[in-house]
Structures are given as C-alpha cells and as structure tokens.
Amino acid sequence: MDSTLKDQYDSIIFDLDGTLWDSTDTITGAWQAALNKAPYMSHEVMTRERVRSITGMTYDAIFEKLFPFLNPDQRAEVQKLCSLSELEILHKQGGTLYPKLEETLIYLKQKYKLYIVSNCQSGYIELFLDLNSMHSHFLAHQCFGTKGNPKADNIRDIVNDNGLKAPVYVGDTMGDYDAATKAGVPFIFASYGFGVVESGQIATIDNFEELKVIL
C-alpha cells in the first residue's frame, strides 16, 4: 500500500453512507413502510438494490429518480413519509459500521481534524453519531438537508468555516469524486462502498483500516 500521502494533509472529510457505515437494509424497510401508507404507492416494492442505486444523491433528487411518475405534490408527500420513517426506524435498528471503523478514527484523529459531509437529510448524521457514540471523533459536519446546497458547496463550507489548509475527502461514488473535485479537494476512493470511480482519485482503499497505512 502506497504511503506517499503521509503528512500531506491537515484534515479528512468523510462521506457517510458507503464510507463509514451501511444502512441500506434499514432504509429499505423504512421506505417500504412509508410507501405502504400512501394508497397510490401500494404497488411499489422497495428493494436493497433500488436504495443502493441512489446512494450519494441529494435527498430531493432521490425521489425524482425513484418515482418520476408522481406529480409534485405526491412526490413531496412520499418524500416526507420516507424521511420520517427513515429516522424513526434507524433510531431503533441503526446501520452496520464498516470493520475497524472506530479504531481507525481514533488513530486518524491524533494527526488529522475529522469531518463529515453527506447528501443526506437533516438529522441523519446526528443520528449516526448518536447511535454509535462518535461525536468525539468529528469536529463538524454538513449535509444537503441543512441548506439545500450541493455536496461541493458543503465541502467548501467545511473547509472555509474551519480554516482547513490541506483537506482530503474520502467517499465511495462518482458523485463524491465530482463534488470533491469541484471543491478543489483531493479524493480517496473507498472501493468497498456502493460506487465505482475508475480514475482521478489520489488513492483507493479496499477497507477502512487502510487509511491508517496511507495517511
């Protein structure tokens, strides 16, 4: 594993889904429960594959892609139902942390300032931190739900608001790569997640613990 990236950065910004944990199964069940509450959605079946296919998209864009046949009012209602169901059920069931996650974060925060930027709804990052007692590992976070801004803008906000001089972003999709690139932040690809990034990244990790080696 290449270790030439050591001592080049002052901070690490992480994506959440597909990078720090996998909540796909829980969200699939939560969204199905929400769809069952809308009579005009009784025919819809939510699957793990459908949820994974939209991971990394903004919350608004997710429902436009999944349900293009709905009118704006129906889509807004379904999005609200799914949002409430997601947070409620995640509070009970949570997601699956990737192996050696906390051990690696503890190691990394000795050298780097750690942050999270995700395209999720408001409350989702907080739920992740609460459920897993991880508030102490991260100095700040930002998401789509806060201001409705794209991920690139939210990465810039974290960089500017915290005076970061040499950040690096870790994510698992092309959307993550594109956002980091637009924000002028180097990108490390987490290949164990949900997406594919074929080129442009400064490094690829096959498991979360490999960050201890390259950084």
TrEMBL record:
<comment type="pathway">
    <text>Organic acid metabolism; glycolate biosynthesis; glycolate from 2-phosphoglycolate: step 1/1.</text>
</comment>
<comment type="similarity">
    <text>Belongs to the HAD-like hydrolase superfamily. CbbY/CbbZ/Gph/YieH family.</text>
</comment>
<dbReference type="InterPro" id="IPR023198">
    <property type="entry name" value="PGP-like_dom2"/>
</dbReference>
<keyword id="KW-0378">Hydrolase</keyword>
<dbReference type="GO" id="GO:0016787">
    <property type="term" value="F:hydrolase activity"/>
</dbReference>
<dbReference type="Pfam" id="PF13419">
    <property type="entry name" value="HAD_2"/>
</dbReference>
<protein>
    <recommendedName>
        <fullName>phosphoglycolate phosphatase</fullName>
        <ecNumber>3.1.3.18</ecNumber>
    </recommendedName>
</protein>
<dbReference type="InterPro" id="IPR050155">
    <property type="entry name" value="HAD-like_hydrolase_sf"/>
</dbReference>
<dbReference type="InterPro" id="IPR036412">
    <property type="entry name" value="HAD-like_sf"/>
</dbReference>
<dbReference type="InterPro" id="IPR006439">
    <property type="entry name" value="HAD-SF_hydro_IA"/>
</dbReference>
<dbReference type="InterPro" id="IPR041492">
    <property type="entry name" value="HAD_2"/>
</dbReference>
<dbReference type="InterPro" id="IPR023214">
    <property type="entry name" value="HAD_sf"/>
</dbReference>
